[in-house]
């Protein structure tokens, strides 16, 4: 697995430091609210777990599984819900937690959906942002790191469902995925 890595982009220590900073910022912004953190599965799991442990207040959590890729390696722009929320968003401050923002289609769709369903507010928190890939303008209030347009793995991010368990973020050698 380690032989497939081109370069480590964000170390485990850098990740933990930044996640704690983000948790403090979220706490400061939401300490007097009814916060529902919604994780977008699957890649968000490590970030979501670390982030929620760094927020020193009562929170509610839920998860969704959505796709705008289908069988493609790039977004089709059509978002499909594969697993919906278990709880209502009515009168909740919803914070969507995402591992990486690429095209923006999924987050734009989810933000509109939660507002239509009666959320009090909807904000977005992403661990990684590939701003150069954005096809839809979507406001992101909390960003861990901006990254260049490379194929990245680790800390929840995968290639063919592999590498998610790496404790750091790395670029993948091109010969692995081409």
Distance between the termini: 16 Å
Mean pLDDT: 93
Largest sheet strand order: 4-3-2-5-6-7
Count of runs of 4 or more consecutive helical residues: 4
Global shape = globular
Briefly, what CATH class? Alpha Beta
Number-wise, the strands total 9
Strand content: 25-35%
Count of folded domains: 1
Query: What's the SSE pattern?
Result: EHEHEEEHEEEEH
Q: Quick one: biggest sheet?
A: 6 strands, mixed
CATH architecture: 3-Layer(aba) Sandwich
Do you know the CATH topology? Answer: Rossmann fold
Taking all Cα atoms into account, the compactness measure Rg is: 16 Å
Overall helicity: 10-25%
Task: List the SSEs and their pairings.
Layout: E1 5-10, H1 12-30, E2 35-41, H2 45-53, E3 60-67, E4 80-83, E5 93-101, H3 105-116, E6 121-129, E7 142-146, E8 152-153, E9 169-172, H4 174-177
Parallel strand pairs: 2-3, 2-5, 5-6, 6-7
Antiparallel strand pairs: 1-9, 3-4, 8-9
Helix pairs in contact: 1-2
Give a description of the structure:
- It is an enzyme of class 2 (transferase).
- Keywords: Cytoplasm, Glycosyltransferase, Magnesium, Metal-binding, Nucleotide-binding, Purine salvage, Transferase.
- This is Hypoxanthine phosphoribosyltransferase.
- With about 180 residues, this protein is an alpha/beta fold.
- The protein has a single domain (about 1-65, about 75-175), classed as Rossmann fold (3-Layer(aba) Sandwich).
- The chain has four helices and nine strands.
- The protein has helices at about 10-30, 45-55, 105-115, 175; strands spanning about 5-10, 35-40, 60-65, 80-85, 95-100, 120-130, 140-145, 150-155, 170.
- It has a six-stranded mixed beta sheet with strand order 4-3-2-5-6-7.
- Helix 2 (about 45-55) links the parallel strand 2 and strand 3.
- Helix 1 crosses helix 2.
- It is globular and about 50 Å long.
- The two termini are about 15 Å apart.
- The mean pLDDT is about 95.
